[in-house]
Amino acid sequence: MERDIWQVYGPQGLTAFALYAPSNPGLAVDAATLAGWVEDFGVTMTVLADWDGAVYEAWALNDPDAYAPYPREYVLGRDGRLVYVDTNIDVDALTAAIEAALATSR
Questions:
Q1: Of the chain's two ends, which shows fewer C-beta atoms within 10 Å, N or C?
Q2: What class does CATH assign to 2-103?
Q3: Do 83 and 99 meet the contact criterion of CB atoms below 8 Å apart?
Q4: Model confidence, pTM
């Protein structure tokens, strides 16, 4: 996501972020540890923390074909409408959705 999507499409107007949402609140890391991971992995897009899992639950998908029932990739158009969602990583489909969304007039 960082190299293939954010670094390519960020300069073209894409706003991207990653969401840290612990699947088990008892296993959640603290903010300093999360910041350390971001630095260690060289993540340059915004990373949001969903400590209580509320965002995770609101956007979660239950796809029987997915690896797990959690959100993966979402693309919102310039108008804020959901134009793409998938629970499995499909870089080609995600890229096509981003390019289509960026191509719409501002």
A1: C
A2: alpha beta
A3: no
A4: 0.73
Distance of CA 100 to the CA centre of its chain: 18
Write down the residue that tokens 């979660």 correspond to: 60
Q: With CA atoms as reference, report the closest residue to 4 among 93, 76, 71.
A: 93
Structure tokens at 106: 């501002």
* Residue pair 48/59 in contact by the 8 Å Cβ criterion: no
Residues 21, 7: Cα–Cα separation, whole Å: 23
Distance between terminal CA atoms of the chain? 24
Q: What is the number of other CB atoms lying within 10 angstroms of the CB of residue 71?
A: 19
Q: By three-state DSSP, how is residue 47 classified?
A: strand
